[in-house]
TrEMBL record:
This is E3 ubiquitin-protein ligase NEURL3. Signal peptide: none annotated. It is an enzyme of class 2 (transferase). The gene is Neurl3. SUPFAM superfamilies: RING/U-box (SSF57850). Its EC number is 2.3.2.27. It is found in: Cytoplasm. Its main location: cytoplasm. Residues 56-212 form the NHR domain.
Length: 298
């Protein structure tokens, strides 16, 4: 399965990173076979599921890779030596739609590839840390119902805020600072509690979990020096987005082609339901279009 985003770069290497990650649809889709090794996930029902789902996210204190050191609050995770054994989990399940927000604290050059993020059905409370494999991708994925992806290396520099979530269709998204969301994969199986899993891998040396409870996505409100959200163009009469009636309609949905939405509204629809409001067709992507200008015909 060569298209698997996670299967690249299991070994450290020097040199530039070919970024293969795109937000456009992957054809992989569908249910993912659960690996034969159910041992690690056995009995995940009924532990702490559902309880304390409003509690701030921390790293699970016990289930962590052999190289991970944490602060007492479980908010920061630092990988010691090597590029591997950096797996960490959230201490509680994360609901579909709930954002997991983190900041990259330290970047260590000299490795190939960085942070991996995703979700797993493994209950970290029922896992023995020595049993953890060195990598989320591909090891933990092969051993358990886990869905993760590699983030583009350019997006996981120190200081960047990364937010990731699974939507109600099982699509895994990530968002870096104020950039547009990246669709990472579309095959996360819902229906059981999902814990966030992160691999503090390679060039990503340390991360910090952020509070995302106050905002639908913390990256929308957290400023990062030198990077700000693109200003929304104010629409001319007749060219407004039909959702917000303020910004210019400058996108169209792929594949149905329906325009009439500004990029903010289009992306929000894509993230939330991924259904075109005009025709209910499934949205696979959002394309930019130039709004018609004065002097052009219809
Ligand atoms: Zn709009
Ligand atoms: Zn449509």
């Amino acid at each position: 399965m060569g298209a698997h985003l996670c299967s690249e770069a299991a070994l450290p290497r020097m040199g530039p990173t070919p970024v293969s990650l795109v937000w456009l649809p992957q054809q992989r889709g569908g249910a993912r076979a659960v690996g034969p090794e159910e041992r690690m996930s056995a009995g995940h029902q009924g532990s702490q599921d559902g309880q304390a789902t409003g509690e701030a996210l921390r790293f699970h204190a016990a289930a962590r890779g052999a190289q991970v050191r944490m602060d007492e609050q479980g908010r920061t995770a630092l990988r010691g030596a090597s590029f591997r054994d950096g797996i960490v989990f959230s201490q509680r399940p994360v609901r579909p739609g709930e954002r997991v927000a983190l900041r990259v604290l330290r970047h260590e050059p000299g490795w190939y590839g960085g942070l991996r993020v995703g979700f797993t059905r493994l209950d970290p409370a029922r896992m023995a840390a020595p049993g953890l494999p060195p990598f989320v991708c591909p090891d933990l994925e092969e051993q358990s119902p886990t869905w993760a992806a590699v983030l583009p290396e350019s997006s996981v520099r120190a200081g960047n805020v990364v937010c990731f979530w699974v939507n109600h269709r099982g699509w895994l998204f990530a968002k870096v600072n104020a950039a547009r969301p990246l669709l990472l994969r579309k095959d996360v199986l819902l229906g059981s509690p999902l814990w966030a899993v992160m691999d503090v891998y390679g060039t990503t040396k340390a991360i910090e979990l952020l509070d995302s409870g106050a905002s639908p996505c913390v990256t929308a409100t957290l400023g990062v020096p030198g990077q700000k959200a693109e200003p929304e163009p104010k629409a001319l009469p007749g060219e407004e987005c039909i959702i917000c009636f303020h910004c210019a309609a400058d996108t169209r949905f792929v594949p149905c082609g329906h325009p009439h939405f500004c990029s903010s509204c289009a992306w929000r629809i894509f993230e939330d339901t991924a259904k075109c409001p005009m025709c209910r067709w499934q949205i696979e992507g959002v394309a930019a279009v130039q709004p018609p200008r004065t002097g052009e015909g219809s």
